[in-house]
Write a structure and sequence with these properties.
Length: 317
């Protein structure tokens, strides 16, 4: 025998013509709204993230004076529309021509930074710069360190910087643009054989990009394979190991870490490399390839065009 369920009571609608709303006086609702409004406004702009050291960084309002201690971060901040918020940079960061310089990436000048009264300092991942950051933190300066080693890490950095600076929508738009660029390159490279590549970070005391670097992800997405198997970001590589690896393509970065690389065709023993014999040597901008930032997707396309010209030649480009 089924139990008969009682009919639900009809919903009580608000009285349409009186001075009460849902059982409360009308003036009580207005007072409640007014009392809560300042709390909502006060919370606008507040942000909290974890940086790549796992440290919490909190800002009550978007920063108005930002100091960038890394070129790639400067590019990201500019791409997010924050160029007018940059108060200083480091030596060698040519994007900040009219701003003060506060030392170098490895040795930022703490006294100069404090004198500029920043409300946010951002740094790239380098161990030698940590003591300076600790001093700034002790003085109450918000500091965030980011150290992306691949595109997912780069996108995470952009997303967190956007949240921290009140530019979340601009960050999402930048990430989408870069992802679209990478996807276009990937479609061209489908089915092509990966080309063995060596990436020279520095010539004297030969230093190579290992598989823990942003450069490694750029090589992979460009249709190459890094002949350096070290899991480190950077690794020393002797001539014997290089001759044994014998890459098909040799990439040389030029910039602060490799200011005036010697002509590879004049270097002793380098003529034994198949990359040199075939003249498959590419000189690239250090800032484009080794500084994770908005142009990293363009670095992938530049290298891909060199490794696989046939992928563009098919369409006459």
């Amino acid at each position: 025998m089924k139990t008969r369920q009682p009919h639900p009571r009809p919903l009580a609608l608000p009285h349409q013509g009186g001075g009460r709303v849902w059982g409360f006086p009308w003036w009580f609702s207005i007072c409640l709204f007014i009392s809560l409004t300042p709390l909502v406004v006060k919370d606008l702009g507040a942000a909290q993230i974890l940086d790549d050291l796992g440290q919490e960084v909190s800002l009550a309002v978007p920063p108005q004076r930002i100091i960038s201690l890394y070129g790639g971060l400067t590019e990201v901040l500019e791409a997010l529309g924050l160029a007018d918020k940059l108060a200083a940079g480091i030596q060698g960061d040519n994007r900040l021509a009219n701003l003060p310089r506060v030392g170098t990436h490895l040795q930022p000048n703490v006294e100069m930074i404090l004198a500029l009264k920043p409300d946010l300092v951002v740094q790239g991942g380098v161990a030698k710069g940590l003591p300076a950051l600790r001093k700034l933190e002790a003085e109450g300066v918000p500091v965030a360190m980011f150290s992306p080693h691949d595109f997912p890490g780069l996108f995470s950095m952009i997303r967190r910087l956007g949240a921290l600076t009140g530019r979340s929508e601009a960050a999402a738009s930048l990430i989408q643009e870069m992802e679209d660029h990478l996807a276009q390159t990937a479609r061209r490279l489908q089915g092509l054989r990966p080309v063995p590549v060596f990436f020279e970070v520095r010539y004297l005391n030969l230093l190579a990009a290992g598989r823990g670097s942003m450069v490694n992800d750029i090589i992979t997405r460009a249709g190459g394979v890094n002949v350096v198997e070290s899991p480190q970001e950077l690794t020393r590589f002797d001539l014997e190991a290089l001759l044994h690896a014998d890459p098909e393509v040799y990439v040389i970065q030029q910039g602060p870490m490799n200011k005036s690389p010697e002509d590879i065709y004049s270097r002793p023993y380098f003529k034994e490399l198949q990359a040199v014999k075939a003249r498959r040597v590419l000189l690239v901008d250090e800032g484009l390839f080794s500084h994770p930032g908005p142009r990293s997707a363009a670095a992938v396309e530049q290298l891909a065009r060199f490794l696989h010209p046939e992928a563009w030649g098919r369409e006459g480009q």
